[in-house]
Amino acid sequence: MIEVNNESGEVVDEERLQGLAIFALDFLRIHPQSELSVLLVDEGTMAAYHEEYLGEPGPTDVLSFPMDELRAPSEEDDPPLGLLGDIVLCPKITAAQAADNGRTPAGEADYLLIHGLLHLLGHDHAEPAEKKAMFDLNDQLIAAWDKKRGRP
Fold first, then answer.
1. Could you tell me which residue, 39 or 130, shows the higher pLDDT?
2. Entry pTM
């Protein structure tokens, strides 16, 4: 079950985000009944979360809060079932940085949703090799999502 709650005050295509999350979980072979929460917040709320949980001032674009520490299974393993956790996105920050990353605001939200999801599944980018693996998988998922939707 994927729940998207928009508390940001911004107009966001919540169905698109939910569809992308479903697509990504299927792509990564996570059980379809696993639970994921996506919360869209304003800059003030994101800044408060950023400071409370990471000790850093100001708002950020995405935060992830894993629950059951699920991991994508190997081909021979069954898809895991459980609570993935929460992804928090700030649409104002997402929209503001989209052009710098060569994306539309919706495309940036897509990219950051996948980024947050990969963090929930144990991916990190602290070390160069981890960063490459995580960002390559992020790009692969977005490309597959765009292809499914008929976008080049």
1. 39
2. 0.90
